[in-house]
Amino acid sequence: MNFSKIDLDETHIRLTCDLARHELKRYVFSIRRDLKNYILKNQDFLLSFEPIEVEEDVPLIVRTMAEASNVSDVGPMACVAGSISQLSLDYLIGEGSRYSIVENGGDIAMINDEKVLCGIYSNNQVLGNNIAFEIKARRSPLGICSSSGKIGHSISFGDADSVCVISKSCALSDGIATRIANEIRGEDSEEKIVNGLECSENYKEFFDGALIVCDSHVASFGKLPKIVESADFDVNFQPVNY
């Protein structure tokens, strides 16, 4: 297995891949360039906290972000890290990969022909950082994305330690995690969790499962992979803007 990093301005990818040779860095550079050029002409796409209608002939990265934001009712940039991960994975699959894990600012797109553990980082007083999802071998892509009101550089209007969403689309997982995390508000952690679960209900057809962590409360929604104990870990967070 091959391990590498791709750092292009605000994009910080950590890659595990069964391909010894690929041109992923060049591909990521090209989709970032497409996004930058589009934003230069469409500032609302960068600044809006709500979905934005886009033209038919927009670049693939713009289309991917717009579609995910339309479903999850957040601004397009809330889906940028997950979209870059997703398109990167699609590229690697197109090159013949059967095992690739693309992590970009905590948003993970993966395909794995053998079992893997995916650590759950919340820095929570109850859970700590020594639990993980056990992801069974699979032939189709999976998106695992998290949003937090306390950790990282993303904008969140809620107070969650972590909202982790799993779906078949990394772009969509990114947007829905942001949407749910925005609703983690209330007088106490129980009320915050309830609000997050109610929000999850509104989007349940678009994702498999969600894990919501806030203060002394933890809740799950939908179907999640098995959660197992893992070695304690730490993460150096990077900006997850474009």
Please tell me about this protein's structure.
By secondary structure, the chain is of the alpha+beta class. It has a single domain (2-229), classed as ApbE-like domains (T-fold), CATH 3.10.520. 32% of the residues lie in helices and 25% in strands. The chain has helices at residues 24-41, 43-47, 60-72, 80-94, 170-182, 189-202, and strands spanning 2-8, 11-17, 100-104, 107-111, 116-119, 131-135, 142-147, 162-167, 209-214, 217-222, 226-229. The strands form two sheets. It has an eight-stranded antiparallel β-sheet with strand order 1-2-3-4-7-8-9-10. A hairpin with a 2-residue loop joins strand 3 (100-104) and strand 4. The longest helix has 18 residues, at 24-41.
Strand content bin: 25-35%
- CATH architecture designation: Roll
CATH class membership: Alpha Beta
Give the CATH topology: T-fold
Q: C-alpha Rg, in Å?
A: 17 Å
Mean pLDDT: 89
Oligomer classification:
single chain
Counting helices, strands and paired strands, the structural category is alpha+beta
Query: How much helix is in the residues?
Result: 25-40%
| Number of helices, where a helix is a run of at least 4 consecutive DSSP H or I residues | 6
CATH superfamily: ApbE-like domains
Q: Give the biggest sheet.
A: 8 strands, antiparallel
What overall form do the CA principal axes indicate? globular
Q: Extract low-pLDDT stretches.
A: 236-242
N-to-C series of helices and strands: EEHHHHEEEEEEHHEEE
